[in-house]
Write a structure and sequence with these properties.
The protein contains no helices and ten strands. The chain is an all-beta fold.
Length: 121
């Protein structure tokens, strides 16, 4: 089973940028669609960006044009470049495979610690 460790979060001012990384191990990295998710305090976890096995990316409307998802197959790493960050982007960010047909995580996936992104002046 794939396992992920997220990193790269931090405190950034509005308008700033961050690049999140997600190191995968224990499975076939390119066998699944992959996604970045986020969960803000008091809110449900949401899908931020997805990337299919062929590299096709899709984004939530709220981040379209600001975030870019990518992956490096040689290092089994998923990335999320986040630009023009705003307070509404404050959340814990996670990565995991995603069922692209349902746009939901697969059953029985385990969630890592995530990485905290805080956008504040």
């Amino acid at each position: 089973q794939l396992q992920f460790v997220e990193s790269g979060g931090g405190l950034v001012q509005p308008g700033g940028s961050l690049r999140l990384s997600c190191a995968a191990s224990g499975g076939f990295f390119n066998a699944y669609g992959l996604a970045w998710y986020r969960q803000a305090p008091g809110k449900e976890r949401e899908v931020v960006a997805t990337i299919g096995t062929a590299g096709i990316a899709n984004y939530a409307d709220s981040v379209k044009g600001r975030f870019t998802i990518s992956k490096d197959r040689s290092t089994n790493t998923l990335f999320l470049q986040m630009n023009e960050l705003g307070p509404e982007d404050t959340a814990v960010y996670y990565c995991n495979p995603i069922n692209l047909a349902t746009m939901k995580p697969f059953d029985n996936v385990s969630w890592g610690q995530g990485t905290q992104v805080t956008v504040s002046s």
